[in-house]
Write a structure and sequence with these properties.
The complex is a heterodimer. Chain A is α/β, with parallel strands linked by helices. Chain A is about 60% helix and about 10% strand. The N and C termini of chain A lie far apart (about 85 Å). Chain B has one domain (about 15-80): SH3 type barrels. Chain B has 2 helices and 5 strands. Chain B has a 5-stranded antiparallel sheet with strand order 4-3-2-1-5. The chains are: A alpha/beta, B alpha+beta.
Chain lengths: ~725, ~80
């Protein structure tokens, strides 16, 4: 028997299966090149959803295997074995152990890192014992060879009895062969890798019978994991519980024995297959690089330098496309308003298009940030960051892996909270999710920049340190400190459900795969636009209605009042128009609501106009700037004056500038702490599967915001 | 199994290795964490080498089966050496 590396050879061997769409699941160890393979197979033709009932990304896509055969590819979370240790990994057993499931795969492609074949084969042997049709994608063969690991592929094929495709998924080598083999009638390995202990047989046979299972090993898996299998009924679970207690089934001990037995078997098997030429006199390149990148001093210096560069990019580079988007939206609105008029046109321009613009404007920042995060993850550097930060983060009830959500939180809490899924430990993950929204996200930037521009002079120190920039950085720092000290608080309050582990493979350094980076950027931006966008657009429309209508004939009365005043004060036409608009807004529904909460926010220095903005930003913070500009510009003929000038000309009751230092800082502090993002609350609810967490977050953050803003205003007043 | 009911006084664990020092795994002390470590290839009889420590001394990386594994000190402590 030969190993199939030439697609032409395979085609002749067997007839293609007569199924229109085959379902293929991808499974493999973390870092075994599974994602690359998935991207190679599906390209842009993929979508990310959720596995039913859990918050684990389910990536599916379609791949044209042969001109006549299309396959649906499901990317399963990376795992080391079929005994899941995390929430993510649990979806694998739900999928593979329920042959009735509509997602049950026709074929499983196992990716294995050739340079670490022993550990990668553990998972393979388990799948083989389930007698699921398997193809082994032996990845990074070239890399292994350069490290002195030579694999005799035909011998491995003889030992395993399933098709083996040597490949390099990053470069796309071996893809054609893999597609062809995947389109064939799948082979089932008949070599058992693990002999189930005889004494378990009675129990396993009853399980096999009751659930009509194909293999003894699947019955054993049911015995180990019935509590995690979502598709089993309550009665089934109780039945299994009784059966296994009667049979003295010690899951933990048996799993340990099984793993050892499997490794023994794999070792025997690999004796003739893998030849390691111990040529490495010096340390591996990755380990040498680590001596610098995780160095006591240089390690942190380099990390902070990278972080600085990332933020620089997020704020400086992204500003160009952002300005373009801003300009485009303004021009579009101008164009529409010049040519059409009427309430519906106002709704379209001031409500919908302005709202959409408010969403799109953040896309460049999110794209740039996730480009960096993806590159850092791809190269393997992120693992070093979690390694260096774990000790510190742990002191605050977090985990080294909390670094990624916290950094991502600087762009947007929505994708950031979703990235907390990689944290296996429940408590660590909840704390990370809880505190991530305290990191200043890009939606707060417009609020900060507008207010900073108003009250902080553009002074330079040493020629390059800009005072405005320093204040902005200070705000980010306050947000970060708020996040970690809140985490500390939660660490004390929350009880741990399970132990926190940090046992993980330290990936070797690699060049980033730009395709993966591109896909990550696309995916995160899409998530943001869809998740946050719908809320923001909806709020923009509601706001427009509230600000454009008032009860009864309040609007006519406001106009009359304004006209009378205009006559007395001898105002010109433009001033009269503004006066009318201002009075009308005061008597609109928005104005009424804003006035009714004014007493509550007066101690913070705010008036009813800010009250309106606070209310509308309870859906999404970035609406603040939109609301403020709507409130101050609604009804104005000229939209050219910038927001800054409008705000500067605003006077308080004493005729002093309204946006003074105390008020501006009080507002910034309020926005820094407050949970004003319905999109985030929705995501937290989805990720934690309870209302307790988002509600606690809402109460905690808003309370903190009120108190801190109060202190700020009273001190600076 | 390879787990010991009681830790022998003074038995060396991976935690005690100095950077660059080698050892052979004797047993895994913690049943639950042991499963995870077994799956990651930390089997009794396997060669381990202390590779590096994080700047603050914890976590550490070890080399086992030709790959680098990172773990915390209290996790390393459960891997006893011969």
């Amino acid at each position: 028997m030969t190993v199939i590396t030439q697609p032409e050879m395979v085609q002749a061997e067997k007839p293609a299966i007569l199924k229109s769409v085959a379902k293929i699941a991808l499974i493999g160890n973390p870092n075994s090149g599974k994602t690359s393979l998935f991207n190679q197979l599906t390209g842009l033709n993929q979508k990310v959803g959720n596995f039913p009932g859990v918050t684990v990304d389910k990536k599916t896509g379609y791949s044209q295997l042969t001109p006549t055969l299309k396959a649906q590819i499901i990317d399963l979370p990376g795992t080391y074995s079929l005994y899941p240790k995390s929430l993510d990994e649990r979806v694998i057993i739900d999928l593979l152990y329920d042959p009735q499931s509509k997602h049950y795969p026709d074929l499983v492609i196992v990716t294995a890192d050739a340079s670490n074949l022993k550990r990668n084969l553990l998972l393979y042997t388990q799948l083989a014992d389930l007698q699921i049709p398997v193809v082994l994608a032996l990845n990074m063969v070239d890399l292994a060879e350069s490290e002195g690991v030579k694999i005799d592929v035909p011998a491995l094929h003889r030992a395993l009895g399933v098709p083996i495709i040597p490949m390099n998924a990053r470069k796309g080598v071996g893809m054609a062969a893999l597609k062809i083999v995947a389109s064939q009638q799948p082979e089932i390995s008949t070599v058992p890798f693990f002999d189930i202990p005889e004494e378990l047989q009675p129990a396993l046979q009853s399980i096999k019978q009751r659930f009509d299972l194909a293999t003894d090993y699947l019955a054993l898996q049911y015995a180990h994991q019935y509590r995690s299998l979502k598709f089993l009924s309550e009665a089934d679970v109780q039945w299994l519980d009784k059966l296994l207690t009667e049979n003295n089934f010690h899951s933990n001990t048996l799993q340990g024995k099984e793993t050892i037995a499997r490794y023994v078997r794999i070792n025997e098997l690999l004796l003739d297959v893998v030849r390691v030429e111990k040529v490495q006199k010096d340390e591996k390149f990755s380990n040498r690089l680590d001596q610098i990148l995780t160095h006591k001093i240089f390690g942190y210096l380099i990390f902070f330098a990278i972080l600085f560069m990332v933020f620089q990019a997020v704020f400086a580079w992204a500003s160009y496309p952002m300005d373009l988007i801003d300009l485009g939206i303004t021009n579009l609105n101008g164009l529409i308003q010049d040519n059409f008029s009427g309430p519906l046109i106002n709704l379209l321009t001031e409500g919908i298009i302005a709202g959409l613009g408010g969403v799109l404007i953040f896309v460049p920042q999110i794209a740039v940030l996730f480009a960096f995060i993806a590159i850092l993850e791809e190269t393997g550097y992120m693992a070093r960051v979690t390694f260096m930060m774990d000790r510190i983060m742990r002191k605050f009830g977090l985990n080294g892996k909390s670094v990624v959500p916290l950094i991502s939180g600087v762009a947007c809490a929505v994708p950031a909270i979703m990235s907390a899924r990689t944290i296996e430990n429940w408590k660590d993950r909840m704390i990370t999710i809880f505190v991530t929204p305290l990191m200043s996200c890009s939606a707060r930037i417009p609020v900060y920049t507008v207010l900073i521009a108003l009250v902080v002079p553009e002074t330079y120190y040493f020629g390059f340190l800009n005072l405005q920039g320093i204040v902005l950085m200070g705000l980010y720092l306050v947000g970060f400190l708020a996040a970690i000290f809140s985490a500390l608080l939660l660490k004390v309050l929350l009880k741990a459900r399970e132990r926190s582990y940090f046992i993980m493979e330290f990936p070797t350094y690699k060049m980033p795969r730009w395709k993966n980076v591109g896909l990550t950027i696309f995916e995160k931006s899409k998530t943001f636009v869809l998740e946050a966008g719908k809320v923001i657009v909806a709020v923009s429309i509601i706001l427009w209605v509230l600000a454009s209508y008032g009860p009864g004939n309040a609007f006519e009365e406001a106009e009359q009042l304004a006209l009378t005043e205009a006559k007395v004060e001898n105002l010109d036409e433009v001033q009269t128009e503004n006066r009318i608009a201002s009075h009308q807004l005061e008597s609109s529904y928005a104005g009424i609501i804003g006035r009714s909460i004014e007493p509550a926010i007066k101690p913070l220095g705010y008036d009813w106009k800010i009250g309106i903005a606070l209310l509308t930003s309870f859906a999404a913070r970035e609406v603040f700037v939109g609301t403020i500009s709507t409130i101050y510009s609604i009804g104005e003929e000229e939209n050219v004056s910038t927001l800054k000038n409008k705000l500067l000309s605003e006077k308080d009751d004493n005729g002093e500038p309204f946006f003074n230092l105390a008020r501006s800082f009080s507002l910034m502090i309020f926005y820094l702490f407050a949970m004003q993002c319905i999109s985030t609350l929705a995501i937290v609810r989805r990720e934690t599967k309870s209302w307790t967490w988002p509600l606690a977050q809402l109460v905690y953050m808003s309370g903190l915001a009120y108190v801190m803003a109060f202190i700020t205003y009273q001190v600076l007043k | 199994m390879q787990k010991k009911a009681k830790m022998e006084q003074g038995q060396k664990s991976v935690r005690d290795l100095k950077i660059g020092e080698h050892g052979i795994i004797c047993c895994l002390q913690d049943p639950e964490m042991g499963l995870k470590l077994l799956e990651m290839g930390c089997l009794p009889g396997t060669h381990v080498k202390m590779n590096s420590r994080a700047p603050l001394g914890d976590p550490i990386t070890i080399i086992v089966n030709d790959y680098t594994l990172s773990l915390r000190l209290d996790e390393a402590e459960t891997i006893l050496l011969k």
